[in-house]
Structures are given as C-alpha cells and as structure tokens.
C-alpha cells in the first residue's frame, strides 16, 4: 500500500511490536517456542524494577503529566475490555522500560528496536508531525484498532503490516490489553529530518512505549474471559480494583518524580 505524505498535513502513524508481530517485518515466534516468553529485562540489562531517577538528572524524557496520562489511559482501557477479563493485571510505570524507550526515541528511527531488547519486551510506536494538544493523540490510535478486533485473536488483522498491508492492524490494541504485560515505560522525543517510510519529516514527535513482561503472541487471546479478577495470579492476594488484579499500591510514578 503506497502512502502519500503531504508536508502541510498533520500526519500520524503507528507501528507495534508486541511480541506477536514485528509490524515492519515478520511475526515473532508463538508463545510455545522454547524460552520465548521472558518476564523481564533482567537477562538483557540487569536491573531492579521501579528504580527511581536520580535527582541530579538534567531533563526528564517524558513529563509527569504525559506519563500519568499514558498510564491512566492504559488502565482505563484494560479495565473496560469486552468480553470482560478474569486475569487483567493493573499496569504500573517502570523506570527501566522508560529509560530504554528514551534511548530508542533519541535514535529517531521509524522502526522497532533495539533488537537485543525486543527479545524481552513489547513495543508500540507512534509518530506525528504538526501541533498536538495532548500526548493521548499519539496513544489513542492504538486503542482505535479495537473496532477491527474480534476476540479472542485478530483473525482478520494483519500482523505483518505496514510493509505487507492488505487489511487492518490490531496488534497495538492487543498489546495495550495483554493481561500479563503489567509494566510500561514510555518516552517522547522531537526528531528533526526523520525518515518515515521514505519521506523526510522535518519535525516529528516520536513516542516509544515499552511493555513487560513480553506478550502479544500471534494466535493467542490477550486475556482470559470471565468474572473480573476471578483468575488473578496468587501474588495479588485477591486484591481487585476497577476489574483488574491490583498490586496493593496504585502506581510508582510518585516515587519516580521525587
């Protein structure tokens, strides 16, 4: 499918690496592949979850308001899935994921990466040129794919888009509502002269969101259907909030911004 890009227009594009598919190439292995689903980045980078940012850091790679907006929007979507989910986990902010997202956003490459981390995490990308009022203008197109999605998995959605597009995509949406991907970290960066599918965008707002544990496998449902919180992992101790397995503390973003 040929894209016509006009410099005078407001343009928004999204691509998704959920562990289900590399949107610009071929699908990732099925979840049954040996060692395919690794539940964190520790094997790749070595880190502690939820670690705080140094007070000496000169500049945040995402504002507090944008971070809260992205996190709360994801949890709103996750708590309202239909059919209802029995094992949907509440999503929290993860500092290490945000830092890896920052590193990739600064590369200003319209593709998923870096490859060595994609073995361990999921990733949604969005890019926009022109003015925007809210960071959610770059996030909501991911959710809008729900109109083309049929539970339990996207029979009619093409995971190989955009290079082999012949139908709608759903993998951004399924990454957002993948029940066991309960951590997110994002970064936004302004890129100059960014190459987006062969066209040079003079000034592009680039959003990178990384997810963990990795999920979004092709051919698998993003969550289990049933009474909300009836199939939560034991680690949650039976705690439930807004139809999601609740970790006890609402989020760690207040600690992140101390």
Quick synopsis:
The protein is built from 6 helices and 8 strands. It has helices spanning about 65-80, 95-105, 115-120, 135-145, 170-175, 255, and strands at about 10-20, 20, 90-95, 120-130, 185-195, 200-210, 240, 245.
What this model shows, in words?
The chain has one domain: 3-Layer(aba) Sandwich (Pathogenesis-related Protein p14a), CATH 3.40.33.10. Helices cover 20% and strands 20% of the residues. The chain has six helices and eight strands, in the order E-E-H-E-H-H-E-H-H-E-E-E-E-H. 38% of the residues are buried.
Structural class: alpha+beta
Give the SSE order as H and E letters: EEHEHHEHHEEEEH
Helix content: 10-25%
Percent range for β-strand residues: 15-25%
Quaternary form? single chain
* Widest sheet: strand ordering: 2-1-4-6-5-3
CATH class equals: Alpha Beta
Mean pLDDT: 77
Enumerate how many helices there are, as a single number. 6
The global form is: globular
The CATH H-level superfamily is: CAP
Domain SCP: 65-219
Family: Belongs to the CRISP family.
Signal peptide: 1-21
Pfam families: CAP
How are the SSEs placed, and which strands pair?
Layout: E1 11-18, E2 21-22, H1 64-79, E3 92-93, H2 95-107, H3 115-118, E4 122-129, H4 136-144, H5 171-176, E5 183-196, E6 199-212, E7 240-241, E8 244-245, H6 253-256
Parallel strand pairs: 3-5
Antiparallel strand pairs: 1-2, 1-4, 4-6, 5-6, 7-8
Keywords:
258 residues, alpha+beta, Pathogenesis-related Protein p14a, six-stranded mixed β-sheet, two-stranded antiparallel ribbon, 6 helices, disordered N terminus
